[in-house]
Design goal:
The protein has about 100 residues and is mostly helical. The chain has one domain. It is built from three helices and no strands. Helix 1 runs antiparallel to helix 2 and helix 1 crosses helix 3. It is elongated, with a radius of gyration of 16 Å.
Length: about 100
């Protein structure tokens, strides 16, 4: 994760971290929505679309944030897998 230490703390990186947090929350809401649909077919139908909107918004924030963070890197960029691992680490460990 040392490859991305240059971009941590920047605006794009913080946007990507918050997008990742939003994506995780949306995924949890989608799972809860599907479980709620098993018990009730009409009452809780709005939970799944709300979760999907959060997932899509999180994806957009992550992609825009990573592209902004990559622009600040001089020279060769680390692979996407390295970025993703560092993003997940920062999303769960209260970095930016």
């Amino acid at each position: 994760m040392d490859d991305v230490s240059e971009v941590r703390g920047g605006t794009g990186w913080r946007m990507a971290v918050w997008g990742d947090r939003l994506l995780i929350a949306g995924a949890v809401i989608v799972v809860v929505g599907f479980v709620a649909l098993l018990g009730s077919s009409t009452v809780m139908q709005w939970i799944v679309p709300v979760g999907m909107v959060l997932v899509v918004a999180g994806d957009v924030l992550v992609l825009v944030g990573i592209s902004r963070a990559c622009r600040t890197l001089p020279g060769k960029r680390p692979p996407f897998r390295t970025f993703r691992r560092a993003l997940l680490h920062d999303a769960f460990h209260a970095a930016p």
